[in-house]
Amino acid sequence: MKKELHLQLSPEEAYDPELFKATVLKNAGISFTTPEVFVRQVKRSIDARGRKVKVNVQSEIFIKEQPNSLIENIPTYGNISNADPIVIVGAGPAGLFAALRAIELGVKPIILERGKDVRARRRDLAAITKHHLVNPDSNYCFGEGGAGTYSDGKLYTRSKKRGDIRRIMEILVAHGATEEILVDAHPHIGTNKLPKLVADLRNTILESGGEIHFDCRVEDFILEGNEIKGVITNNGEKIKGLGVILATGHSARDIFELLQRRNIFIEAKPFALGVRIEHSQKLIDRIQYHCEIDRGPYLPASSYSLVTQTNFKGIQRGVFSFCMCPGGYIVPSATAPGELVVNGMSPSRRDSKFANSGIVVAVELEDLPEFQKYGPLAAMHFQAEIEKRAWEMGGKTQVAPAQKMVDFVEKKNSTSLLDTSYQPGLESVEMREVLPGFISERLAMAFKVFGQKMRGYYTNDSQLIGVESRTSSPVRIPRDKESFEHIQIKRLYPCGEGAGYAGGIVSAAMDGERCAEKLIAAYINK
């Protein structure tokens, strides 16, 4: 027999396994000593709107019945060693899930990844932090698993219409993620656990007969008229397939430049740019959970989501939080020497004493008149110029420019900075010298508003660390809405964040699957 209960519990009742079981059985009118009873959580979300934090839990009780697995559908992957090949450029979530879906459909994926495998990437990440050396092919953005592997691994998405979210989650669980990601309203794997999961995804692809080539950067396309036949790599190798899925991520500027050079239609795209804000996690917990000292042993590190509209010189633009990392760290995310970019990440336990979030301003193309000479690469060149300025202001290393929040708003120099999770270090600067006026003035307006929405948020016990500039791709590679094929080049399928069609691990994975399905339906399984 199976029963379902929807309960609102205290944090202790929700997160202590024995107390949870006792509470659920009591509410169901079942004795705790009843034999052959199994209780589990199916959905869980935190409600911190009131003075006392509650946890909404959907639970299942099984009496004298074996509980079914939370994983409802596990795809089967046959051997496709000798099947028709497709080329996938990029081994981030879009590329990896495109490959897995291709294998399901009986097609051989050949993945080309400019960076290194997930384990070898670690050395290059350490070199950025310790020696300020940026490898343009292996860094926090490039390499197996893409940007999400070493920068957080949040799995929350609002992209309900793009594919089957549950399916993506279940594939991740089948490759090593805990079943918790099927339960939590805002699931998170963590940077410490993602590398093994990514390696397991790779093994599934290889064991099925797919190919993955690391240190393999695409430098040109093989075009015949208006059709793409394959690509040419940095080794001079020509790799052909029945179609090409371009899943290179939002930071592959050389690919955008290649597309423009080959007269393949692309367009500038609005994006967002700003800073990382770092507070102590205890401060954010006190604000969000209404606790006097700390959040206690049961509640997870609290997060926040903020948005406001600002009016500057008669133009309205949104300012919003982006990729909030509770119990997290700020990391250096440049993809080339001579630039400075920061991002946030959290380990699975989210146990850092710091909380950080991007606070970014919407940038429209009309905000960049002096960059219009770059055509479709206008927003990309603007982005690159700000990153170069941040690098120069920080001392031409990966030391990041920073300023306390109230000092920034009041246009005062910060005579000292706070402790930080950003390991390369901070340099006190006037952030208005890093950011253009229309960005800095809107940020200053927004911080005051956010301080009203979250009492205690606007404080000099927090600091701006810059710059947060890789929120999304500044370029869109346009594709047909129905076929997903590039509007000009046949057999080319722009995919994921780099093409402007996704915004995170899950949405990129779903887009990868759909691109694979569309390509295969059009050119292989006709």
Describe this structure in words.
The chain has 526 residues and is of the alpha+beta class. Helices cover 28% and strands 24% of the residues. The protein contains 14 helices and 22 strands. The chain has helices at 11-15, 17-28, 93-104, 121-131, 147-150, 165-174, 194-207, 253-261, 281-289, 378-393, 405-409, 437-453, 496-499, 505-523, and strands at 2-9, 37-47, 54-63, 85-89, 108-112, 211-213, 218-224, 227-233, 238-240, 244-246, 267-268, 271-280, 307-312, 315-325, 329-332, 342-345, 354-363, 400-404, 426-428, 463-468, 475-476, 492-494. The strands form six sheets. The protein has a seven-stranded mixed beta sheet. Strands 6-5-4-10-22 form a five-stranded parallel beta sheet. It has a three-stranded antiparallel beta sheet with strand order 1-3-2. Helix 3 (93-104) packs parallel to helix 7 and helix 3 packs across helix 14. It is globular and about 75 Å long. The two termini are 46 Å apart.
Question: In a few lines, what is going on in this structure?
Answer:
With 526 residues, this protein is an alpha+beta fold.
What is the tally of helical segments?
A: 14
Anisotropy-based shape = globular
Q: How would a crystallographer describe the biggest sheet?
A: 7 strands, mixed
Lateral arrangement of strands in the main beta sheet: 13-14-17-12-20-18-19
